[in-house]
Amino acid sequence: MAYKVGIDIGGTFTDLYAYDTQTGKSLCLSSSSTPENYANGVLNVIEKSKIRPEDIELIVHGTTVATNAVIMKTYEKTAFVTTKGMRDLIEIGRFHRKVLYDPYQQKPEPIVSRDNRFTVEERIDKDGNVLEALNENDVRQVAAKIREKGITSVCVGFMNSYVNGKHEKRAAEILKEELPDAYVIASSQILPNIGALGRFTTGIINAALYHLVSNYIENLEDRLRGKGFKGKLLLVQSNGGAITAELVRTKPETLLMSGPAGGVVGALSIGKASGQEDIITFDMGGTSTDISIIEKSKPFMSSDFEIDWDMPVPIPLIEIISIGAGGGSIAWVDSGGVLKVGPRSAGAYPGPVCYGVGGTEPTVCDANLVLGYLDADEFLDGDMKLDVEGAKESIRKLGEKLGLSMIDTAKGILEIVNENMANAVKEVTIGKGRDPRDFALSAFGGAGSLHAVACADKVGVPVVLVPPEPGNLCAFGDINMNLQNEVESFYFSKLDDLDLKDINKRFSNMDKEGIGLLHSQKVPTNGETIKHVISMRYTGQSYELEIECDDLVIKEDTVKTLAEDFHATHKKIYFVNDPDSEVEITKLRTTVIGEIAEEINIQDQTGEKKEAKSKTVKAYFDGKEMDTPVYQRSLITTEDIVSGPAIVREKKSSTIIPPGKKCRIDPNNRSLIIENL
Amino acid sequence: MNKKLDPITFEVVRSSFDYITKMMSQTLQKISFSPIMYDQVDFSNALFDDKANLIGQTTNVPVHLAAMHHCVNAAVEAFKDDFNEGDVVILNDPYRGGTHNMDVTFVTPLFWDGKLTAYACSRGHWQDMGGKAASSESPTAVHIAEEGLRLPPTKIFINKEPVTWLIDIIRNNTRAPYFIDGDIRAHMGALNTAEKHFFELVEKYGEETVRACMEEALDYTERRTRAAIAKLPNGVYEAEDYIDADGVNNEAIYVRATVTIEDEDITVDFTGSSPTVDGPVNFPLAGTCSGVYFGLKFFLDLDAPPNAGMYRPIHIIVPENTVFNPRWPAPVYYGNLITSEKAADLIWQCLEKAIPQDIVGMPYADCNPISWGVVNAREGVSDTFGELPPGGWGGTPYGDGMSATYSRHGNCMDFTPEQMELLYPVICTEREFKTDSAGAGKFRGGLGLQVSWKILQNATMNLGMGRSRFGPPGVCGGKDGLPSSVIVNMGTDKEKVIGGYTKDHEYLMTMFDNYPMKAGETVTMITQGGGGYGDPKERDPELVKKDVKNEVISKDAAAREYGVSL
């Protein structure tokens, strides 16, 4: 036997998806997450699966270890060494405040406190010329102070190191010499891009996470090996690609969005099997909803990531918009007498009123319950009984403030939360020049399939997919990943003056570096792909558009195509362009992909032949009570067509099919497909 | 609530107004050419109903709160029935709803089925509109004509076609003609974005519902604002303060305000403030109103959607021909910054008496604009660039003020140092907190900055910075923050204070233009610390120790101000 195993750690559950490459069978289960040491959860869930560790050839693991460290600020104490005069650049940020009118707001604590930030004499100008030589004596003195403080993570970040990293490199060398036990990194080694704040912050987060991530991986790998695991351990990066445990230790910042990336890749793989290449992913949990875009089976990437206010980490990653709307979002009436939902969430504790563990404010979950969409006795497969009366009472009270009936209030809560989410979907589609009618919406997470159809309707998305095991989609996505890494380089030229020889040479060096990284991981692949992306803007602008360059070697014709693509994209996104204006290039990116994913056939899990319709309940649609049949998802056959109103239930989620919609099962991958047939 | 509307539909449509203006701003920022727009985000976008009432505005620049409203009204007034589909009006006249000449506003009517339904409006700060000094920043102007091209409401697009002669005139009157086409395109992008999304909304919910929601949006904000005012104690509260100088005369300018809170209404009266002054710290009425609205909003309902409904319970009395309500030809450029902030400072100092438990120390105020012009006519070089280095915010009843954060009237970002060096002949040599700049207090003010540049070519320099004569006031026993100053060639034998207090305690104005900088010279700005909150002796000694460890206060100051010896 040879298993591929995807493991995703979430706040509540650690999910596993295993695929037997010989039999084609798959297995999917969860156990509780173990915040005291997340590795325990990984071992527990493998044990629970009864798969023998020696039968596993590959583990691909989506981890929150980096994300949590950043949120909880449990990263390593780190020192930062920078150019004289720039000690506070990373704390000053970009001047602006987060909330426009709050007089009491404060900025987040910097990752490196001021007493651990040091400066040395050196300066390089914008062309890479040395204005002031590196004062090596300064560096050694700083090293002594760092040693005295017992700090073992150090980042060096100098001005303009994106054009010339010599000083940074030399300073790092000296620091390593002086501090043999420390991890020392230079900012330009991680991200050689213009923008000191982003480059420094990325370098700092790399240093601050280094020991923590290393220890986690070492501990996990040792224990897996101890149990007999002999395969490869890969980690999921924020770019939607995998990387070996060994290599990620020096790139811990690529793990910051490791968890959600699995879901996007999962939705991508499932969508592909259904013939959907253009997908909006819709991952709704208890406190937030994550939305991303997949076009032509490629996740949309951006470099706009911030770990906190004014703390940019501008590495390429899957762009995921997160909004504060989830099952636990609280409904309330503001001082102007208007109903609002969120962003405050009841979370798991005190939780929605219907959980009966202390929550008193009505939530989205409570509204779903009183409208008949959730089953009080079968929630989480009957693990939790819900308090319908409590939920009704809290919503009735809220309705009194609005002059609305209980049912109208519950309907209003869903209407507003759906509108908030629909606006976020519009922002990533219409707001970026994309027509929502060209997309399918893939719903997952605990609450995604409850709201997906209503939300898709608001935006005009014609098809909704609910993947099998929507609660475990991240783990499924994990085993669908390829190895992937990016190499970026600052490159400044007017498009018309482009030196083809020079840019091709630069790209070729970047390709070599990327392929080198791929090969260094020693994972056998089924093929390698290289992609080039060029950042372009009109001369005078500051923000770029990323344009894919299909010709790996740029020729005269390519330049023309690039210009045309740029003008067209600008028009599509911003509704204006000017083909006569000068265009310039600012950044190059090479993406190297090592193909290791294989097509996974999801088979019918049960094989049972039983009536899928289990009962009929009363549920409200558009304020009207309707007899609504409930179907067990696992029993629906590919010949069945389920007409709304209907509810499709499975272990961790429910899908609402409103009147007028029809739902069927995709024979290729057992997804639910809901559309206006 | 309007009887034709249910609260759910209203909230759904209303949130779309926010969404539409947000999308407009995204477009404007991403494609504009002026660094002050794309990097420093000095712009606003808004939607208005068919009667030119502000319905929704992006939350970028509070000083545009009322001024946008006045602008659209000026455009509508100018063209009345001749404002047609596909027309776009441009204007920047501070005496017709503008703020200063640099803030250029675009207005277009949105017709649905041939009927006027709404207006979309996009305003941004352009890099240069001509005038006496680079970036049009001239603190010594004595006539508005010295502040650059002043456009009355004029059609710049007619039936979607650009009025090329007008664009030519604008291009001919700026130091940065190469930004003009890109910036116009960016504003048009924003207006097109508004049109597209607004019409989608009308199509979906029907024109009547959308109109009803626009009307209700005003009532809604009014209700929320009144509810917040009702929580403040009734009374008459007074405060006085000074503007450092007007840039022309080195004399402090007296200003005062009386705030009367009566149940759900507030009246702000500036009677008694100085008459119009010679230099450009006068602020036309629309701007002063903005200052009142944003000053109050911090202590009313922070999240109530900003629209004309907020204007209803707030009554403003400003006598004509004062610094808060000047007449042509008074120069006005710095009114937008210094005087709008002063209006807000006066209100906050009145509120200190009304709600001492909730008030915060004064922020650094103003926006500290510094700019440089590099002209080399022989080589056809004409560069103008600048920066807005902020100071600290006031201490609060709950914690220390924010350090180096943009002040109330805007929310601009920095011109990032590497980008500035890439584009202009300058090296950013320093960007650090200024030790001991924060006003002491139980919770201290935020820190000011010490920020320096080396200018690589001969250049002219302009500066318009306030709070250099008197630092930002503390409240409830908190101390004032450090006043600002500006120094050339710091640390060399040519070091010289050119604004603020000299070593001999002589006060020099921090407002000047066309100061000659030789290639290779440096200039350093020390920005204001925020005012403190509460008695410094009540500060937790652990916090004092932490500040000393971080070198944001000195050991001396710890002993002197806080009585903590280390």
TrEMBL record, chain A:
Domain Acetophenone carboxylase-like C-terminal: 501-667
Species of the source: Lentihominibacter hominis
Residue ranges of every copy of the Hydantoinase/oxoprolinase N-terminal domain listed in the record: 4-178
PANTHER family: 5-OXOPROLINASE RELATED, HYPOTHETICAL 5-OXOPROLINASE (EUROFUNG)-RELATED
GO biological process: glutathione metabolic process
GO function term, MF aspect, one: 5-oxoprolinase (ATP-hydrolyzing) activity
Domain Hydantoinase A/oxoprolinase stretches: 199-477
CC per GO annotation: cytosol
Name used for this protein in its record: Hydantoinase/oxoprolinase family protein
Regions that span the bilayer: none
Top-level taxon of the source organism: Bacteria
SUPFAM superfamilies for this protein: Actin-like ATPase domain
From TrEMBL, chain B:
Entry's Gene Ontology cellular component terms: cytosol
GO molecular function: 5-oxoprolinase (ATP-hydrolyzing) activity
InterPro entries: Hydantoinase_B, Oxoprolinase-like
Residue ranges occupied by any Hydantoinase B/oxoprolinase domain in the UniProt entry: 6-536
GO biological process, one term: glutathione metabolic process
Superkingdom field: Bacteria
Name of the protein in question: Hydantoinase B/oxoprolinase family protein
Pfam families linked: Hydantoinase_B
